[in-house]
Amino acid sequence: MSRHGQGGAPPGPTAPEPAFAEQARTLVHLARTGTLGTLSRRHPGHPFVSVMPYAPDERGRPLLLISTLAMHTQNLDADPRASLLAVQAGAGEDPLALARVTLMGRAARLPGAERPPAREAYLARHPNAVHWVDFDDFAFWRLDLTDVYFVGGFGAMDWLTVEGYEAARPDPLADAAPGIIEHMNCDHADALILYARVLGGLAADAAEMVAVDRLGFKLRARTAEGPRGCRIGFPREVTTAEQCRVVLIEMLADCRARAS
Description:
alpha+beta, 8-stranded antiparallel beta sheet, 3-stranded antiparallel beta sheet, 7 helices, 11 strands, about 30% strand, elongated
């Protein structure tokens, strides 16, 4: 695991967090659209990139629904090597602070027997595609992975094994996390400041939750020295929004007792 640029983190042991493989699977699960890189047929050897909606299969491999008329399809027919970049959502954020994963592999059309489950998975993510999914000039492709590179934001990056990535599962809080984050930031700003001060060791004037998962959450705090970030671990693993709510209430009570 490669880490650098750790400036601004509070001293002391790092709170536990999901392994990179789990974080990568979670990101691929949450994203709906990536950037597909193929090798240009018109300009041999030159990269060609396209915006690409996708749906992950049960192993996290991207399923693509593409037309034979598309330039990337023509490129893949000539050379199946491709990469798909998926990036964490975060409008207004520094893009280099956002997590992202590059899935490298070889793309191939799915045989007829594999089309029904791919169709179901794809339409669950992209229901509007029902209007063209059955057109004769559209086909399902899958990117069979040969390598995976994950960047978790500033200072956290590594190559992952395909086996480790495919064996991992998305974080159980993945779909609930945006609602948890919005609720905490809108309704519990004082609690976030207390978490940052008591548990994060930061002299925070303000704080916002920027991520949450089964093992803990991340805060971005405003301090006299500038913005600082910290990760705070849960006292036990949580797998549902309700469990997360209960644990956050317990942690707040503990912080109030320790701060009094």
